[in-house]
Amino acid sequence: MSTSISFITSNKGKPLLVYDGYLYKLNKATEKVKYWTCQERTCSASVHTDSDDQFIKSKGNHGSHLPSPEEIEWRMFKSVVKRRIKEESIAIGLIYDQELARAHFSQAGLAVSLSSQEAKSSLNKLRRKTTPILPDSSDFDIPDLYSTTIDSR
């Protein structure tokens, strides 16, 4: 029996396991096994994977709550947007709108999504973390390669 699991990143950069429409957070990791618990605090369902993130087994059921495919869609979308903001220098609003158009959200997924204006503040913070700081002074060396003009002046 082949079991499909995937991984996404939480807002704090931690791995989340996606299995059967539910999200699991890493509870404990040993040398051979990783123990994942349902993200819903009141739920006792869990999943075990090996150290290479291959499914071993699941335990318990999610009797206290339903799966949340919209939240998973939304988290996957956010991780793609964040990756692009870190790697590319085009406008944040443009990246957000391009990915929103590409995402093909369900109606419920669109209902929980933010507009690019609403998301811009946190995304700007992310971009600032990857942008080099501006120098404090204008005292710096210009390499010889850049110290002459095209007409050799």
From TrEMBL:
Keywords: Metal-binding, Zinc, Zinc-finger. The keyword Ubl conjugation does not apply. The keyword Transport does not apply. InterPro entries: Znf_FLYWCH. Signal peptide: none annotated. Residues 7-62 form the FLYWCH-type domain. This is FLYWCH-type domain-containing protein. The lineage of its organism: Eukaryota, Metazoa, Spiralia, Gnathifera, Rotifera.
